[in-house]
Amino acid sequence: MTRKRIGRIAIYPGTFDPLTNGHVDIIQRGSTLFDWIVVAILINPDKSPLFSIAERTEIANCVFDGMPNVEVDTFEGLLVDYAKRRNAKVIVRGLRAVSDFEYEMQMALMNRRLSPDLETVLMMPSEPYTYLSSRLVKEVFALGGSVEGLVPGLVEKRLADNSKLLPPFKE
Ligand code: PNS
Questions:
Q1: What is the assigned CATH class of domain 9-165?
Q2: Which of 69, 88, 146, 148 has a CA positioned 20 to 30 A from the CA of residue 77?
């Protein structure tokens, strides 16, 4: 059942496959601006993720355990419908570089067309994370590179345990 929160609620939606320290950085910044920030993991049957929805939810719950105004949830379908159900007025997204801008602007303006009262807030992560993406983390790790400092320790452990990254990728 969807929890009803009181106060200014922001949704931080994404795939989070896996959660990176760039995502964590944005959540930490967002949690100071809003009463509640909901990490909303998209259930997308068309994609074949490395980590299942249950694994990504569990990882995010563990990582944000010490942050009382951060909630982890999943959603399907349109983000604007989910935001309405959660009574959220703000979507938070990270903006790493100019290359992100076009995609983020398209999404923000489409979401505004669908739901004019919903604002998108784009937040810049700390500089060390401006080149960081979940895709690169998976690629570097699968090819034997170190992702230390780029993802939470729990994600590093789960990457090592993940059978989908077995040889020929993982030694
Ligand atoms: O981490 P990602 O993959 O960049 O996140 C993309 C996400 C989940 C924010 C976006 O795909 C999304 O909102 N999907 C839900 C479906 C939807 O509302 N699509 C229209 C968005 S303009």
A1: alpha beta
A2: 69
